[in-house]
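Handoff note, outgoing to incoming analyst
You'll be picking up this chain. Sequence as last confirmed:
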Amino acid sequence: MISIANISDIAKMAGVSVSTVSRVLNNHKYVSKEKRAIVQKIIADMNYTPNKNAIDLIRGETRMIGVIIPYNNNQAFDQMLHGVLNKSVERDFSITVLPTKYNKEKEIEYFSMLKNKLLDGIIITSRSNDWEEIVPFTNDGPVVSCEYTEHPEIGCSYIDRYHSYLEVFQYLKNKGHIYVAFTTARGIESMSTQQTIAAYKQVFGELQPEFFLSDCYCIEDGYRAAQKLLSLQTKPTAIYANGDEVAGGIYQYALSINLKIPDNLAIIGQENQPVGVALGLSTVDHQLIKVGEQACELIINKSRQKIKIPYKMIHRFSI
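Most recent structure output, in case you need it:
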């Protein structure tokens, strides 16, 4: 392998400038066919392999985007990441996944990668730090959020979660349900959980604490949640789960105690996941793949736009 300094040697042998050699290495269109052919022949003859880090410095970008994700094996975050990957392949960018497990210090470490020019930008699927801690890093590179933020320095691709929650609760109330429970992933420190509670209160009034369970991520969590909720003295007649996998666990437990769906218990999930399709569960599709695709587009374009992605409620037999 030849050192990146030998770009100068290639330029001399080809009778062109160093910037022309750089353009050829980066497949830049503004090089004549004749010069490109000469440079490519010399590169082949010398068995030259460019040093990526040095080329990145010349080009002024890494074509690498970081995606902050709390954890994998979660359908919501996986869908957003899937959308980011779809768009990055189209635009010839690479993706680095930055898992945090909601650790604030780890999250800030990742943002320092912008300052060190290791990434061209960062997409946040979910965060643990306050925006005031994150905004200063926008001076080092673009940051895009997958939730709405008013901060003008940060672009966002987002869904109107509050109104989606409101629509679900209002629908259940209109169907005659008075006792409605719901599950969430995180506790009240989460913005989406706060929005769910606010929407619930707007429709039903005060929330009975036992009708709200957090730390629900998978089928097993849904099963355990249903065990708790359906053992209450006042049992819910409808449960809104924070994902179709959780809803699937609720469905399994309901069947195990011979409840009829939806006559004895209405169930609705989120994100139109395969398990929900297979079981015929109603769901709210927040179109998270589109959220990820749009977030990636914003980063690539260095845009600070606020793009709202529409959600849709999908009715199946379970409500």
